[in-house]
Specification:
The chain has about 750 residues and is α/β, with parallel strands linked by helices. The chain contains 27 helices and 21 strands.
Length: about 750
């Protein structure tokens, strides 16, 4: 007889009101002790487990909690610590742990990059010359804690060895099999300890297999999971994937594990079942509730899919669960008191998604009639949302009539750049920043007072002007060439526009983790998107009135706004992207009309949105480049369009970057220790570019030698006439003294490089 169980893959770490974030930052600021930090985070972790138990989840994940990042946790579990942190063995202390993530005075942080195609960032493990050992079984500690404290016999969650190694750096591909052999006994020991402690089932996350992995990974998986089965008999292992369908499915399902977790939301996993079937006697963990979006599940439709899935499972159990970890969605919608009830009725955050999982589990167990009332209630809520909010015929008609000419600038890029150089008269290696400047406690406190009605609109506007004026003066004193207004009026680069555009809704507590303690509040796209009026003109034109130097207009691009929002699925995503582009086009035209001649349209999420299935790449990249050009195509030839991207593997999208037809692009290179420059060594790029010369995500102030080295490294590949000098990302999260100190060094390094280049030509 088939058992049907409810499960969760992972739960948000941050707490309902970001208690986790505040605890971390208080510790980093020296306001609380390590003991107090651990006490507070333990409370959050246990509360997360308690809520899942109360919701009725059968298989509750343990070990998914972290103090910074789950990939970093895996690295330190095995003592994988870069040598520059002077680690001497044993359990990794918190100072070293956070040093790897954030850097120290003496050592730069490890690289940070996107977790597959999400906005979550992980710390990239460095395997150079490490001698790994199982120094602390964190999954075991969390398993025992849940069992002894709450009576929860949890499901330990471990990042699988193939995924961990494939996401790591510091080794040659030919050495991959040797690394697998090195780590395999450590994983075996970890599993043995869990089994001996009473764990019955372990979730081993191997999302790398939803990408087009090579034969080496497949062969390694066969060896690894055969060894697990032989060395830890009796322990049920769930091979968990998410974000897409499994590649090489017919081979993966032959692995000697208890069951397989498949994503039935974002991948064509049902088609895999129809084509290849499912092995007899194996458990299928069906990711049926969307773990990456916030719109309510169509319970009737989801139950139909589960009923179809059930037909393929012979003599094995079925687990009903979200499609991925819920760390990608906010915690609960119960705190949202200002959202229109109709929109709120269509939402489902992490807690609500787990309720959906429990309802669907009941429906699959007992039949559709057992959840008839729940199906009817959600059908009514979704129908009301669709009827009331989701159609703007003028916007849809504008998208349907678009042509290629609508996304093409009148003048070729090489001619534009000549005209722009003549207009702006910038020095060699011009300096600028990415956009945002430090948002101090005073800025955040004043914004909160304004939102609560404690100060007037006029008082708030005056405060923002004072911040802009202060920082224009600071930038001039630092002798930065192209200035920014600082974005002090903006909470977030996407949420801000969500507050201004038609078709968007912002939340009060809809926070999700982006990296470390950095949380963002993605806006909700509930209907068709259109421009409601100027969004940025007032602040940017005021900044420009204070200086003779050019001030950049700052916008977030259509691809990033879409990828960093929770968009409804009634309209095709690429149509929504075009709607956003048309709205931004009007804003760009308004900026240009107001006299702003350098406009930056940031697209940090362009690479992030790249589908994991390579067969879908061309369509996405073509649509993304079209949307960017659609937003920027109407500017005059002497208006310079900038864009910015960060923390991505750019080699895969180099042609798309070129196809954006931006005049200047800035990208991150410092955190990857200059490795991204290789993309430009292997490809010819004729437009202007700024390769970020220092890491803004670390509190340390870089030395002149460090920045100069980064500049020199880039200039070996990129002509000086094309090169800009800038930090690798916005400076919103940095303190004022850190920002001023680092920018001072950056400008000095740029001037030194400029002098050396000039002397060579004399």
């Amino acid at each position: 007889m088939t058992n049907i169980l409810s499960s969760n893959i992972g739960y948000p770490r941050i707490g309902e009101q970001r208690e986790w974030k505040r605890a971390l930052e208080s510790f980093w600021d020296g306001k609380i002790t390590e003991e107090q930090l651990l006490q507070k985070t333990t409370e959050i972790r246990l509360n997360n487990l308690r809520k899942q138990k109360d919701l009725g989840i059968d298989l509750i994940p343990v070990g998914d909690f972290t103090l910074y990042d789950h990939v970093l946790d895996t690295a330190v579990t095995f003592g994988v610590v870069p040598k520059r942190f002077r680690y001497e063995g044993g359990p990794v202390d918190l100072e070293t742990y956070f040093g790897i993530a954030r850097g120290t005075d003496d050592a730069v942080a490890s690289e940070m990059t996107k977790w597959f195609n999400t906005n979550y960032h992980y710390i990239v493990p460095e395997l150079n010359d490490v001698q790994p050992k199982l120094v602390e079984n964190r999954a075991l500690l969390y398993y025992k804690e849940a069992k002894e404290t709450l009576g929860i016999d949890g499901k330990p969650v471990i990042l699988g060895p193939i995924t961990f190694l494939k996401l790591s750096k510091g080794y040659e591909q030919r050495d991959f099999p040797k690394l697998v052999d090195t780590f395999l006994p450590l994983y075996v020991e970890q599993l043995k300890q869990l089994h001996e402690a009473g764990a019955k089932i372990v979730q081993i996350d191997e999302p790398i297999f939803v990408t087009d992995v090579g034969e080496d990974a497949l062969e390694a998986a066969k060896k690894v999971y055969r060894t697990f089965a032989e060395e830890v008999p009796g322990l049920a292992i769930l091979f968990q994937t998410y974000f897409e369908k499994i590649h090489h499915y017919e081979q993966i399902i032959q692995l000697p594990v208890t069951g397989f977790g498949l994503d039935f939301v974002h991948g064509d996993s049902l088609e895999l079942l129809r084509e290849y079937g499912f092995p007899q006697g194996k458990t299928l963990a069906a990711g049926i509730v969307d773990g990456r979006n916030v719109w309510r599940a169509d319970l009737g439709g989801k139950l139909t899919i589960l009923e179809t899935i059930k037909q393929f499972v012979k003599d094995g159990d079925i687990i009903v669960q979200p499609s991925s970890s819920l760390l990608h969605v906010p915690v609960t919608k119960t705190l949202e008191e200002k959202i229109d009830p109709v929109i709120l009725g269509g939402l489902s955050f992490a807690d609500e998604k787990l309720r959906e999982v429990v309802i669907l589990t009941k429906g699959l167990k007992e039949g559709r009639g057992a959840i008839k009332a729940e199906i009817a209630e959600v059908d009514e809520a979704l129908a009301e949302l669709k009827t009331k909010y989701r159609s703007d015929e003028a916007t849809r008609s504008a998208v349907k009539s678009l042509t290629e000419d609508d996304a093409t600038r009148d003048t070729p890029s090489d001619e534009r750049l000549k005209i722009q150089k003549e207009r702006f008269q910038l020095p060699l290696l011009p300096t600028t920043t990415i956009g945002s400047l430090p948002q101090t406690q005073e800025v955040r406190r004043t914004r909160s007072k304004w939102r609560r009605g404690e100060i007037t609109d006029q008082e708030y506007e005056q405060f923002i002007k004072e911040q802009i004026k202060k920082w224009i003066a600071i930038q001039e004193e630092l002798d930065i060439d192209v200035l920014v207004h600082g974005e002090f009026e903006r909470t977030d680069m996407v949420e801000y526009f969500g507050e201004k555009l038609n078709g968007f809704q912002v939340t009060e507590y809809g926070w999700v983790q982006s990296y470390g303690s950095r949380c963002v509040k993605p806006p909700l796209i509930f209907g068709d998107v259109s421009w409601a009026g100027p969004m940025t003109v007032k602040e940017i034109t005021y900044a420009q009135s204070l200086t003779d130097r050019p001030v950049k207009g700052m916008l977030t691009g259509p691809v990033t706004i879409l990828n960093w929002s929770f968009a409804h699925d009634e309209t095709p995503r690429y149509d929504i992207m075009k709607q956003i582009a048309l709205a931004l086009r009007k804003e760009i035209e308004a900026l240009e009309e107001a006299g702003i001649k350098i406009i930056q349209v940031d697209e940090p999420a362009l690479r992030e949105g790249l589908p994991l299935d390579p067969e879908k790449w061309d369509e996405y990249l073509n649509e993304a480049a079209y949307a960017f050009r659609l937003a920027t195509a109407t500017v005059k030839k002497d208006t310079q369009i900038h864009t910015h991207m960060c923390y991505s593997e750019f080699g895969d999208i180099f042609d798309a970057i070129d196809a954006l037809d931006a005049d200047v692009i800035s990208i991150e290179t410092s955190r990857s220790h200059g490795e991204l420059v290789s993309a430009f060594e292997e490809n010819t790029y004729k437009k202007e570019i700024g390769l970020g010369v220092y890491d803004i995500h670390s509190p340390r102030i870089p030395s002149l030698e460090e920045i100069k080295t980064n500049i020199d490294r880039a200039l070996r590949t990129i002509p000086a006439s094309q090169f800009w000098v800038n930090p690798d990302c916005g400076l919103k999260t940095r303190k004022e003294e850190e920002t001023i100190g680092a920018l001072k060094v950056m400008v000095a390094a740029a001037k030194k490089a400029r002098e050396e280049l000039t002397s060579k030509t004399v």
